[in-house]
Amino acid sequence: MTKGTFISFEGIDGSGKSTQAFMLSEHLQNLGYEPILTREPGGSPGAEEIRALVLQGDTDRWSAETELLLFTAARRDHLERLIQPALEQGKIVICDRFADSTRMYQGLSRGDLRNTVDALHSLMIGREPDVTLLIDMDPARGLARAKSRQGIEERFEDFGTDLQTKMRTGFLALAEEFNERFVVIDGTREIDIVAQEVAEAVLKYLNSQM
Ligand code: ADP
Ligand code: TYD
């Protein structure tokens, strides 16, 4: 049993996860908590090295299976070195993407690998967030936002709107499958309005644990 609280943000590229994760972290700090803000792929030195391998380069750089192993290896390192120790200290961990992203991107994007993803998850990770905030967003708008960032980590964004649409539908289905931990938030509204709804959902959970 861990004492802390594990919160993840999920959603398609450009939906506002990083913005909202940061704002939630600031809000919790103002309330006197000491949240740990982290992200995937990455979040620990080893996992950040794997991040460059999976997010840069051609869209066909890895087979679907190899890619799944790389994301899972990164997550295992992140979990061992950062997430688990922080939760054991009673901290709130806010993670920008976690295993639900693998269920979607590796599980759905190139054929149906969901069973393999779940098997590897239970073997190597075995932990779900306590609360998952799904920032829901129109795929074309999300992609336009993501593309406006102009970075080198564009491997998945390069798959285009069709993939984003599939991911959005998949995330909404996942929210029903894991409805005890998912909260769906409409990310098309103004940043502050979205942030307020995120904070309300998290505080509701924290209060329910007291
Ligand atoms: P993600 O982490 O989901 O890819 P980001 O938080 O990086 O998304 O946001 C992508 C872009 O959209 C950024 O330029 C950000 O400033 C902008 N953005 C985020 N949330 C909103 C919002 N609610 N309305 C308008 N623009 C937003
Ligand atoms: P991220 O940096 O969160 O991108 P964005 O800010 O555009 O949402 O994640 C980078 C990409 O990695 C994103 O396209 C989704 C993908 N990804 C996976 O394919 N599998 C995973 O397990 C994770 C965590 C991310």
Give the tags.
8 helices, binds adenosine-5'-diphosphate, 12% strand, 210 residues, 5 strands, alpha/beta, binds thymidine-5'-diphosphate, 5-stranded parallel sheet
Can you offer a commentary on this structure?
With 210 residues, this protein is α/β, with parallel strands linked by helices. Helix content is 55%, strand content 12%. It has eight helices and five strands, in the order βαβααβααβααβα. It has a five-stranded parallel beta sheet with strand order 2-3-1-4-5, with helices on both faces. Helix 1 packs across helix 8 and helix 3 (64-88) runs parallel beside helix 5 (114-124). The longest helix has 25 residues, at 64-88. The relative contact order is 0.20. It binds adenosine-5'-diphosphate and thymidine-5'-diphosphate (TYD). Adenosine-5'-diphosphate binds next to helix 1, helix 6 and helix 8.
- Parts with pLDDT < 50 across at least 5 consecutive residues: none
Element pattern in H and E: EHEHHEHHEHHEH
**Chemical compounds bound to the protein:** adenosine-5'-diphosphate, thymidine-5'-diphosphate
How much strand? 5-15%
The amount of helix comes to 40-55%
Task: Profile the largest sheet.
Answer: 5 strands, parallel
How many alpha or pi helices?
Answer: 8
Mean pLDDT over the residues:
94
Content-based structural category: alpha/beta
- Largest sheet strand order: 2-3-1-4-5
Distance between the termini: 16 Å
Rg, nearest Å: 16 Å
How many distinct beta strands?
A: 5
Shape: globular
In short:
The chain has 210 residues and is of the alpha/beta class. Helices cover 55% and strands 12% of the residues.
